[in-house]
Amino acid sequence: MSPRQTRLAEFIERVWNRGESAAVPEYLAPLYTIRHDPGDPWEGRSLDHAGFIERLETSRAPFPDQRFTILHMSESGDRVIIAWTWLATHREAAAGFPATGQQIAMSGASIYDFDAEDRLTGHWQVADRLGVFQQLQAQAAANK
After folding, report:
1. Distances 3 to 6, 9, 79 between C-alpha atoms, Å
2. Per-residue b/e over 92-113, b at no fewer than 16 CB within 10 Å?
3. CA angle 129, 21, 78 (to 5 degrees)
């Protein structure tokens, strides 16, 4: 793995998988832009570290044991592209659905941008959020 790929893998592990919000300034530039991420309430916004931490904590709250697994990485210029899977247990209400205690799975791909100091400046992402919604819907129906 290249240094940027290693850094991104560490960011995913520490920040998204473990929820280490204190590590955010270590990996992110002062402003982080969510360029494209349909279904993400922060899509199109530029976040400072505090804003990113709010996003992290809000996103993880219903799924505190979430785990991203990187399936593939490639690099081009100042970008690292990853394909990933996500698995989490639905522990708190999400998208209008009460917690079910059931596992939810998703897959997606993300393109992360880096600055000259190898800090993350933003991403462009596609994720199967419809699949997550359908799983939540099915679990809610099964729990009635």
Report:
1. 5, 10, 12
2. eebeebeebebebebebebbbb
3. 70
3-state helix, strand, coil in the chain (%, to 5): 35, 40, 30
Q: Which domains does the chain have, with CATH numbers?
A: 3-142 (3.10.450.50)
Query: pLDDT digits over 51-76, tens only?
Result: 999 999 999 999 999 999 999 999 99
Does pTM top 0.70 for this prediction?
yes
Q: What is the residue type of 98?
A: P
Strand 46-47 with 120-127, pairing = unpaired
- Cα 25 to Cα 15, 121, 127, distances in angstroms: 10, 11, 25
